[in-house]
Specification:
By secondary structure, the protein is of the alpha/beta class. Helices cover 41% and strands 19% of the residues. It binds S-adenosylmethionine. Belongs to the methyltransferase superfamily. RsmI family.
Length: 244
């Protein structure tokens, strides 16, 4: 049926494409993508020939209207270079417009680096906050970390390898002593997930400059003691914990 299909694609290991994704990519009348070469390679691997249209959220209004017109004729898929579209990737404006116009939107789920990172990190996963990319300038990065300092959830960021040590240094300054985890090259041959204090990780990655793609995670803010009651209940919890 017609409408927009949001299709997740692998973040490294091509085996992670889903059966449903293959079926949809084969069946749509066009695929909107970030980079036609990247998506072309995936389709070639899958043995699929398709019409590719470049799309990003900064595309002018005409490009978006063009895609919406195509959807009236037949189904269109949106993919990004890797992982789940809309997650630090284009698509949200397109989905928004589809919803406003009553065009059906269907999501075909699959890999997303943030989720893979969370599942490997050993950090609390009951509550996590995905916060996209940290700013590249130190001052702005410190400001964002300070803003998130009290969030009672594991923080998840996307990062690039050349900036990892700088980001860890900002964490060490703004959130010293927090547990940090670095997921690198997830689902790929040299996948690793390393955790420690910001200091330990700065030491490791300064001596071993990282390559490839990175998910950076920070453990939740420690519980705040703001009232006498808080302090008492925390002490009670500690006692129960130490008796167990
Ligand atoms: N939409 C994608 C997703 O769902 O994961 C993310 C797109 S974002 C533009 C690209 C960033 O995702 C990279 O800079 C890196 O932080 C992260 N990433 C993508 N693939 C990864 C991988 N295999 N291992 C670790 N991080 C990855």
């Amino acid at each position: 049926s017609s409408g927009l299909y949001i299709v997740a694609t692998p973040i490294g290991n091509l085996g992670d494409i889903t059966l449903r994704a293959i079926e949809i990519l084969r069946g749509v009348s066009a695929i909107a993508c970030e980079d036609t070469r990247v998506t072309g390679k995936l389709l070639q691997h899958l043995g699929i020939k398709q019409r590719l249209i470049r799309y990003d959220d900064h595309a002018d209004e005409r490009a978006r209207v063009g895609l919406l017109a195509l959807m009236a004729e037949g189904p269109v898929a949106l993919v990004s270079d890797a992982g789940t579209p809309l997650v630090s990737d284009p698509g949200y404006r397109l989905v928004r417009e589809c919803r406003e116009r009553g065009i059906a939107v269907t999501s075909i789920p699959g890999p997303s680096a943030a989720i893979v990172g969370i599942t490997l990190s050993g950090l609390p996963s009951d509550r996590f906050m995905f916060a996209g990319f940290l700013p590249s300038k130190a001052k702005a990065r410190g400001d964002v970390l300070a803003e998130l300092a009290d969030v009672p959830a594991t923080l998840v960021f996307y990062e690039t390898s050349p900036r990892l040590v700088d980001a860890l240094q900002s964490i060490d300054e703004v959130l010293p002593g927090r547990e940090v985890a670095v997921g690198r090259e997830l689902t790929k041959m040299f996948e690793e997930c390393r955790s420690g204090s910001p200091q330990e990780l700065i030491e490791h990655y300064s001596a071993n400059p990282p390559r490839g793609e990175i998910v950076l995670m920070i453990g939740p803010a420690p519980a705040k003691i703001s009232t006498m009651e808080d302090a008492e209940s925390m002490l009670r919890a500690e006692l129960v914990h130490s008796k167990a």
